[in-house]
Amino acid sequence: MKDLNKSQLTISGRVTLADVAKAAGVSTSAVSRTFTPGASVAKKTRTHILKVATNLGYRPNAIARTLSTQRSRIIGLVVSYLHNQFYPTIIERLSQHLQAQGYHVLLFISGDHSGAEAETDSLVLDILQYQVDGLVLMSTTMSSRLAMHCHTLGIPVVMLNRTAPIKQVNAVSSNNYEGGRLAARFFINAGAHRISFIGGLKNASTTVERQQGFIDELLHHDISPHSQVYGNYDFHTAGQVTQSLFTTKNPPDALFVANDHMAFSVLDVLRSKLGIAVPDDVQVIGFDNVPQASWRAYYLTTVEQNAEQMVKHTITTLLDSLKSPTAEPRQIVVPVKLIERGTTWKLP
Questions:
Q1: Residue 160 class from Cβ within 10 Å (0-12 exposed, 13-18 middle, 19+ buried)?
Q2: CB burial string 57-76: b at 16+ within 10 A, e below
Q3: CA dihedral sign, ordered 61, 66, 69, 73
């Protein structure tokens, strides 16, 4: 096999797969397999073909491959927003793992909407036009409706960081309930008495489960929640409800916040606006353990979601669903653990 460069070609226009095969002295099927994720081709042959293709400036046509294989090798990922620091972490790891399997992620932003039927239908149409092979749903407000809609259309779906109230679709979530119990138990052991909860969106599965575990653990110790408010998983709103909690005569001495993104706002308000010492005057626990939680400015005690395990379970479940569309749906719950830092008292 001999190498040819682009100047040696007599054809004009875009370099084709046949041009690469001719220049490399191999069959067109060998070139096709080289650029098909997961296809079998000898390592030496593949290296040679890639070198020739690079010299020629060949660009594989993913659209044409989609038409011939009926597979786009694209996975749609639907999120509500990106300002929650947990989402970029998940998206990065999900993209890396899927790329290693020969897939690519196409991101859809659903927005902070109500999840109404018209909005869901519009998003489904946007997704379908890209011929995605499967979907990962992290949208707070429309995950369940969208999941069922796509499932009905035969598109494999995994709900990530969401509990599915519908059992026909796959779901991978953390043990949110246990995370709530861990936070309440820690506060009780640390001597807190006025223990409050700042939730996200009131009806989101993550808020409901974390809140229920938190309350159940308090009640198990004959303690009632001091107060329960909602920050809607929004930085500004979380700051507002924090201010309202601490303008009362009997403010909390402990706060469990339903995610780290809101907890950062809580800490900013307590320290900078209200002059309240953390943890001396009030202890704070978040949920997620995003990278910023370990920064010196926050050093937040938090319940850790195992993002790596969640992503691996999501990809395994999705790829298995692609291979076996009739496989039984999976409901996977990943364990959590409490990471102690500087926003709580250090337990003995």
A1: buried
A2: ebeeeeeebbeeeeebbbbb
A3: positive
Res 71: pLDDT: 66
DSSP track, 221-279: TT---SEEEE-TT-HHHHHHHHHHHTTSSS--SEEEESSHHHHHHHHHIIIIIS---TT
- The 10s digit of each residue's pLDDT in 111-135 is 654 545 556 556 776 777 778 899 9
pTM for the model:
0.80
Provide the phi-psi class of 4: left if phi over 0, else alpha when psi is between -120 and 50, else beta. Answer: beta
The residue type found at 332 is I
Q: How far apart are the C-alpha atoms of 191 and 186, rounded to whole Å?
A: 9
3-state helix, strand, coil in the chain (%, to 5): 45, 15, 40
User: Which amino acid is present at 235?
Assistant: F
Instruction: Determine, yes or no, domain membership for 65.
Output: no
Of the candidates 250, 246, 253, 208, the residue with the CA atom closest to the CA atom of residue 230: 208
Looking at the domain assignment, is residue 273 inside a domain? yes
CA atoms of 260 and 304, how far apart (whole Å): 10
User: Helix, strand or coil for residue 13?
Assistant: coil
Asked if the structure places residue 186 within a domain, the reply is yes
Closest of 163, 229, 165 to residue 202, by C-alpha:
229
Q: Which of 304, 302, 303, 309 is closest to 334 using CA atoms?
A: 309
- CATH number at 42 reads 1.10.260.40
**Same domain (yes/no): 300, 180:** yes
Residue 50: domain span: 6-60
Kindly state whether residue 256 falls inside one of the protein's structural domains: yes
pLDDT bracket for residue 25 (50, 70, 90): very high
135 shares its domain with 280? no
CATH of the domain at 295: 3.40.50.2300
The winner for highest mean pLDDT among 102-106, 116-120, 142-146, 340-344 is 340-344
